[in-house]
Write a structure and sequence with these properties.
It is a single chain. The protein is mainly alpha-helical and 288 residues long. 72% of the residues lie in helices and 2% in strands. The chain has two domains: 28-58 and 255-288, no CATH class; 69-240, MetI-like fold, CATH 1.10.3720. A two-stranded antiparallel sheet has the order 1-2.
Length: 288
């Protein structure tokens, strides 16, 4: 008996495909087109081949910004993942405290990125900001506008305040999905608090931790709005990440060819590192 195929369901997917084409594929092809051409205005383009890619890859400016990005992402993951797990472990599992804690955890995530940058820009000012003024009154020489270390600390604390809640909520979702039978068996066996965390809670959180690590890595590696609003990439170039440098090159200097080549390299780096994270964590999960 011959089967009849009904492909009418594809018409339901068509609007999504059209939306993705206009929002992702077409802009990406435009960037690829700019990355291999040069222009002197008047909508006249000249073939440049891989010249812009070679220029970016041989640029010290690019590698310095990449190092800042990697260092920032490493610090963010090292702080937010353990902190998020710790907070999730200490959140109530029942009672009126559950919705209260969930709402409080979700509040920072609801604030737009530019508003977060503006809040911390004012918060850290030594003349009117609560943080900056208090530190100055305590005798701490704090000024994120002049001191690169203070600028880095401000951006890191700001990102931890803004995004640790995401890790907390993901870890909490993994914890509440653990059946009570596991805890009862551990209690009967006399397992310690550390043993319960190591052999019951942590393995059950592996998948949500994978999502948390991937999301936080991609977000931290692509960070732009918050540090741009707070420091503008300064003082000097101390907080100029790849995203800020890319915008300066494309909008400030209007070097469309190098900017397009840099954006493609930037995209490939994020794709490669995310794939490495995913492969390592899924392989360790399978082996475990």
């Amino acid at each position: 008996m011959q089967k009849t195929w009904n492909n009418k369901a594809w018409f339901l997917v068509l609007p999504v495909l059209v939306l993705v084409a206009f929002s992702a594929v077409i802009p990406l092809m435009t960037v690829v087109n700019y990355s291999v051409q040069d222009t002197f205005g008047n909508n006249e383009f000249f073939w440049a081949g891989t010249d812009w890619f070679e220029e970016i890859l041989h640029s010290a400016r690019f590698w310095e910004a990449l190092q800042r990005n990697l260092f920032f992402s490493f610090i963010i993951l090292a702080l937010q993942i353990p902190l998020g797990i710790f907070i999730a472990l200490n959140m109530p599992k029942s009672g009126i405290g559950v919705p209260v804690c969930l709402v409080l955890m979700a509040l920072p995530l609801l604030i737009p990125w530019n508003v977060v940058g503006t809040i911390w820009q004012v918060f850290g000012r030594v003349d009117i900001g609560l943080l900056g003024y208090t530190l100055r009154a305590l005798g701490v020489d704090y000024n994120y506008v002049r001191d690169p270390v203070d600028a880095w600390i401000t951006i890191i604390v700001m990102d931890v305040w803004h995004w640790t809640s995401l890790v907390v909520l993901l870890c909490y979702a993994g914890l509440v999905s653990i059946p009570d039978a596991y805890y009862q068996a551990a209690k009967i066996d006399g397992a310690s608090r550390w043993s319960v965390f190591r052999y019951i809670q942590l393995p059950k959180m592996k998948r949500v931790l994978l999502i948390a690590v991937l999301l936080r890595f991609m977000d931290s590696f692509m960070i732009y709005t918050e540090p741009f609003v707070v420091t503008g990439g300064g003082p000097g170039n101390s907080t100029t990440f790849l995203s800020i440098d890319l915008v300066k090159m494309a909008v400030g200097q209007f070097d469309l060819g190098p900017a397009a080549a840099m954006s493609i390299i930037y995209f490939l780096i994020i794709l490669l590192l995310s794939w490495v994270f995913y492969t390592v964590m899924t392989s360790s999960d399978a082996n475990g």
